[in-house]
Here is the input.
Amino acid sequence: MTDTSSRPRLDKSWLYRQSRMLHAYLSAFAFIALMLFSLSGLLLNHPDWFKGKADSLEHTITLTPAELAEAQRSDDPVRAAAAIVAERLPLKGEYKSGELMDSEAQVRFEGVSGKSDLFINLQDGQVEATVEAATLTTMLHDLHRGKNSGAAWSWVIDLTAILTLLFSLLGYVLFFSLRFRLATSLKLTTVSLVILGGIIVVFVP
Here is the structure.
């Protein structure tokens, strides 16, 4: 007969204490992140709720011969000229794309804060810039999708997803410490999964 008394057993009370502690600590960040992504997701799903008007400004400047020469010496004259313009004008966004047609460069800057379109003549230095600031709704949309938001915000999205997953898993662990609610919680979980799965199969094209 095998002696099972010497086998190590899981200390459930310790597991539940640790789960409660971690659940409480994670909630400080998780609740704020969940509210932000829930709000932005709601606005993303209903873009007609708040139709703010973006502010747009027109700028015209002329690059100096020295600035033009500096751009022409670069391996990428279009990007170099755009960087010079960005030092002189309050542009929105970061360099996204640029192309050269004859002697005129067309440049696009994009970011959560807004976008900028540049037309730069690399012969005479004439620059026309249109700068459009983002509305609060479009900013929330871009933050929710991680569009043009940079590497730092991409890490925030990943961290939020991981912490929310851990937060949810710890919540399920704590269900096991509440025996009188366990059966109800499992039933609700099963019903929720069935409803979500049914909606996906039946209504989602």
Notes: The chain is about 55% helix and 20% strand. The first strand starts at residue 56 and ends at 62.
